[in-house]
Amino acid sequence: MTEFLSREEVESMSGWILDEALRGGASGADVLYSEGAGSGLSLKDGEIEECVTGFTAGIGVRTIMSDGRQGISYGNRLDKLSLKDLVEWSLTNCRNSEPEEGIMLYEGKMVPDPALDLEDPRIVAITPRERLEYCREMTGYARSADKKVVSVRSASWNDGWGASFYCTTTGLAGWERGSSASCVVTVIADDGTNTEIGGYGLESRRLDELDIKKTALRAVRKTVSALGGKPIRTGPYTIVIDPETAASLVEVIGDLFCAPEIHKGRSMMKDRLGEKVASSCVTLIDDGRIPWKAGTSSWDSEGVPTGRTVLIEGGIAGSYLYNLQYAWKDGVASTGNACRGMSSLPEVGNTNVLLQAGCESSEKIISGIGSGLLITDMMGLHTIDTVSGDFSVGAKGHLIEKGKITKPVSGVTIASNLKNLLNNIVAVGSDLEFFGSTAAPTLVVEDIVVAGE
Questions:
Q1: Going residue by residue through the chain (453 aa), what tens digit of pLDDT does each one get?
Q2: Where in the chain is the domain with CATH 3.30.2290.10?
């Protein structure tokens, strides 16, 4: 173990830093202190491959001048002399920066919400023996699930906790603490002719949401079912996108609503508020107050309470996401979406982004498709042109014939435009799943060109 400072020591230290910043000529300042610990274990075919435990504590200081200049400095040495140097570096960076409009500190209140359930004591109490047992059990489940599994390339478990303290010269001060854990299984499958590697993982703030058997079996099923995949004939298809792949797509779409991307002309959602940007069955939400979820917190990186923002409702673009600076620029209130590390200035980011579920199960949806393609993986979504919406990405999955999932498909390319894809969504499943801080159900999209043979 390592000894962290007490809360009283952190609060006293932070107050001293704020006073030093004001004495040094800043018109305002804030302090972000963070500490935490994490452990991880990974087995390769049942043998320990990696076992790590780490601890960290650090502090970031931001100073602001009245003309909108700001500077940041960060360190993990917490003695008085080092902290004084930290303030001086922040002030130096501040004086050498360019003035910006809308730079300010929040003057409201920081009220922690216990109902958000950010910490699970059971995760914090996990022992090295329990980590090893979790990994051994995942290895055993994966090995016995299918004879085609020739290697459990990795069965890994990670858990940890973190705490942060934020305070400002406007009087804000608040602590928040949370925990999380994850499990991942990766396997290699071989049927004598074809070899495939694949995996599946879960992440949660709640220990009872991490089902290690489910994780192992889904990793095996996903990998084995992909064996022998071949390209299909090029042409337009009705595609069914599974929740995990749809969540990756939702993550890309959520970023398009961040105000800096709008102001810098890097988003196809610029000037689209109030307009139809997707099918009427699409409702996209950013919600930082869903209990237990990875992107949940009582406040953002500027101390502004997090909230629920509807980005798209029934296909109509509803709102952008803001921190204090960009909210000032647009004459609106911050949505509580400021994000910042200890060594960075406040930006805008998503909290939990979810595409609202529909009413029908994925099984019922698939049973109604005469001919189509189930997509279980899309490679290269980060290459989507966020201004034009154009993309061309690799994909794999399974053919759908007469309402049934049949042959594995690989080596195909989906070439389309994000605008067309959003508007061509004709059905949304009821099977909403979270993958980290992003959630999506099964999606059905018509008339998408798939390039294969």
A1: 357 999 999 999 999 999 999 999 999 999 999 999 999 999 999 999 999 999 999 999 999 999 999 999 999 999 999 999 999 999 999 999 999 999 999 999 999 999 999 999 999 999 999 999 999 999 999 999 999 999 999 999 999 999 999 999 999 999 999 999 999 999 999 999 999 999 999 999 999 999 999 999 999 999 999 999 999 999 999 999 999 999 999 999 999 999 999 999 999 999 999 999 999 999 999 999 999 999 999 999 999 999 999 999 999 999 999 999 999 999 999 999 999 999 999 999 999 999 999 999 999 999 999 999 999 999 999 999 999 999 999 999 999 999 999 999 999 999 999 999 999 999 999 999 999 999 999 999 999 999 998
A2: 7-219
| pTM of the predicted protein model | 0.95
CATH fold of the domain at 7-219: PmbA/TldD fold (3.30.2290)
Both structure tokens of 146 = 């299918």
